[in-house]
Amino acid sequence: MKKLKSKRKELTCRRIPGAVTEKIEKINQVTRGWINYYALGSMKTTMTEIDAHLRTRLRIIIWKQWKVPKKRQWGLQKLGIGKDLARLIAYCGDRYYWVATKTCVSRVISKDVLGRAGLVSCLDYYNERHALKLC
C-alpha cells in the first residue's frame, strides 16, 4: 500500500507539467495494474480512502492550473456554479487543500466529472475485479 500511495503522490505532483488528462491516463495505468495484481485481497476500506484522496489531489491540480481568480471564477461558472458564489470562492486565496475539500469545488469537480475526464475509480474497479477473482 505504501508503494501505491507513493507512486500516486508522485504522479499527482503539482510541479510536474502536463494536462490533467495526461496525468489521469498515467494514474489509470498504475491503478489498473496494481488492482489486477492484488485484487484477490480484501481491501475495500483502503480503496475507498485512496480513491477519495486521489480525487482531492486532482481537484487541487485543477485549481492550481486555474492560476488567477478570473480564470477560477470562469472555470467554476462553466461547471455550473452561480456567478456570486464562484467569485467568492475564486478570490479566497491560494489555500489549495482547503478550497478543494471545504468549498463547493468538491461538489462541482465530483467523481462523475472526473470519471467523464477518464479517471477510473479505484473502488469501483476493485469491486469489479475482486468479484471476478472470487468466482
Outline the fold blueprint:
Elements: H1 2-11, H2 20-38, H3 44-65, H4 69-78, H5 83-90, H6 96-102, H7 105-108, H8 111-116, H9 122-134
Helix pairs in contact: 1-2, 2-9, 3-6, 3-9, 4-5
Description:
With 135 residues, the protein is mostly helical. Helix content is 73%, strand content 0%. The chain has 9 helices and no strands. It has helices at 2-11, 20-38, 44-65, 69-78, 83-90, 96-102, 105-108, 111-116, 122-134. α1 packs antiparallel against α2 (20-38), α3 runs antiparallel to α9 and α4 (69-78) runs antiparallel to α5 (83-90). The two termini are 25 Å apart. The relative contact order is 0.16. The mean pLDDT is 89.
Q: Report the biggest beta sheet as strand number plus sense, adding barrel if it closes.
A: none
Total helices: the number is 9
Structural class: mainly alpha
What is the beta-strand fraction?
under 5%
Radius of gyration: 16 Å
Series of secondary-structure elements, N-terminal to C-terminal: HHHHHHHHH
Helix fraction bin: over 70%
| Spatial shape | elongated
Mean pLDDT: 89
Poorly predicted regions are none
Number of beta-strand segments: 0
Distance between the termini: 25 Å
